[in-house]
UniProtKB/TrEMBL annotation:
Cited PANTHER family: NITRATE/NITRITE SENSOR PROTEIN NARX-RELATED (PTHR24421), NITRATE_NITRITE SENSOR PROTEIN NARQ (PTHR24421:SF10)
EC number(s) stated in the UniProt entry for this protein: 2.7.13.3
Domain Signal transduction histidine kinase subgroup 3 dimerisation and phosphoacceptor positions: 233-300
Protein name from the UniProt record: histidine kinase
Catalytic activity line of the entry: ATP + protein L-histidine = ADP + protein N-phospho-L-histidine
Domain annotation Putative sensor: ranges: 31-187
Upper classification of the organism: Bacteria, Bacillati, Actinomycetota, Actinomycetes, Glycomycetales
Domain of life: Bacteria
Top EC group: transferase
Keywords, alphabetical: ATP-binding, Kinase, Membrane, Nucleotide-binding, Phosphoprotein, Transferase, Transmembrane, Transmembrane helix, Two-component regulatory system
Length: 433
């Protein structure tokens, strides 16, 4: 049996670093607790005035600002204390002010936020001030002997009752009292602060009822998006068939009919019409193949997601490197959605990124299909309503998929897709078959 030991200096250094990191975060937490008091007062004052309409903007503004305060606290507790607190919010309601107010009132997270603020500006304020005061008392105890040298009539006692008349005695008291304060801050203050962070996690985290409500809302929205997307896809197929293949097939029938009529009287003209008919039949077949490829590409069915993305890479104007590590194949609907998501990302790179190379990685992590598309372009990519990535986001939402975009100005841009699914072993054709 082997044991791995961690040097004491490393653990001590990490502990000290964590203490000072938390000390730096206490001050914004204190400010947030005071801001929470202001929002709480605005909310309480605005509620009775809602019926006079003048209180509506106060209440709505206080609710929105309190969401922001709570989200800032969630960030601090995650970064500084390792406490993950999800955001139990429904999307911000749309419509007129009265409808917005009604929807916010029905959202349990609204009342949970203000309940937490009532705790935060009372108990939280005490916790944060005590934490700061313990360390401040330790520092003050060590500084006071030097202040006594300059102002002996002012700084001649500790806490108003421990008197001294010499620098040595003052320094002795300072070391003892400062040490006591420091130990209290180091041990008790740390326990108090971390305990309060866990309390914040309990009070701000979504309960089972809120999670269920949010899940119902998400499923309702994703179902509506899926229905809209399917309807739009059917309209596109109908339009493409009507404007493309159908028109060519009509022209094909007309050419064949005319050729039949003049076959005996003018064989050369009939031959020309037959040639045009052959061209129209080829063009119609090509358009139908393109249409089928847009619905469910044959290469996806034949070679799986990795092979289909490699085919996209070969047709892309930029060099695209594809790395695939899948022990099986996702369900066909997931595979199709993932393929078109990658296709959309590659299209955006070609149109807007001004990149010189692209990397696509496909893998399976635990229970999730993960795909990243990374380019070395100019960055600044965003999801615009009604745009391609917005459509991908709504399409993947039907599978509980998540789209993440990291694109700072100057690049690089990384588009990541995560879709929960189970892999199965399905036959895929190899390049030799």
């Amino acid at each position: 049996m082997s044991h791995t030991s961690i040097p004491i200096s490393q653990t001590t250094g990490a502990r000290i670093g964590r203490r000072f990191k938390q000390l730096g975060l206490v001050f914004p937490l204190l400010g947030l607790s005071i801001a929470g008091l202001v929002m709480f007062v605005l909310f309480v004052v605005g509620m009775p005035l809602v019926f006079l309409t003048v209180g509506i903007p106060l209440v709505v503004g206080a609710v929105g600002a309190t969401r922001g305060l709570c989200n800032a606290e969630r960030f601090i507790y995650r970064v500084g204390f390792g406490v993950e607190i999800d955001r139990p919010y429904r999307p911000w309601p749309k419509g007129n002010v009265a409808k917005v107010l009604l929807e916010l009132a029905k959202d349990a997270s609204t009342w949970r936020n203000f309940g937490w603020q009532a705790v935060n500006f009372t108990l939280g304020f005490i916790v944060f001030v005590t934490y700061i005061a313990l360390l401040g008392g330790a520092l003050m105890a060590l500084i006071q002997p030097f202040l006594w040298l300059g102002l002996p009539d002012v700084f001649d006692t500790y806490y108003g009752f421990i008197s001294y008349d010499s620098f040595a005695l003052a320094m002795t008291y300072g070391v003892i009292l400062g040490g006591m304060n420091f130990v209290a801050w180091w041990v008790g203050g740390d326990a108090m602060l971390n305990g309060y962070a866990r309390l914040a996690g309990v009070m701000m985290r979504a309960n089972k009822s809120q999670k269920l409500q949010r899940r119902v809302v998400e499923l309702t929205e994703s179902r509506a998006d899926t229905v809209d997307s399917s309807a739009a896809e059917l309209r596109r197929i109908e339009r493409d068939l009507h404007d493309g293949a159908q028109a060519r097939l009509v022209a094909l029938g007309m050419s064949l009919g005319m050729a039949e009529e003049i076959l005996t009287s003018d064989p050369q003209a009939a031959a020309k019409l037959l040639a045009e008919a052959r061209e129209n039949s080829g063009a119609a077949l090509s358009e139908i193949r393109d249409l089928v490829r847009g619905i469910h590409p044959p290469v996806l069915a034949d070679r799986g997601l990795g092979g289909a993305v490699e085919a996209l890479a070969l047709a892309h104007p930029l060099p695209v490197t594809v790395e695939t590590n899948l022990p099986g194949r996702p369900p066909e609907p997931v595979e199709s959605a993932a393929y078109f998501a990658v296709a959309e990302a590659l299209t955006n790179v070609a149109k807007y990124a001004q990149a010189t190379e692209v990397f696509v990685r496909i893998g399976y992590f635990g229970t999730r299909l993960g795909i990243t598309v990374r380019d070395n372009g100019r960055g600044g990519a965003t999801v615009t309503p009604g745009g391609g990535l917005d459509g991908v986001t709504r399409r993947l939402a039907a599978f509980d998929g998540v789209v993440t975009i990291r694109s700072e100005p100057g690049g690089p841009t990384i588009v990541a897709y995560e879709i929960p699914c189970e892999l199965t072993v399905r036959p895929s054709l190899t390049m030799d078959e």
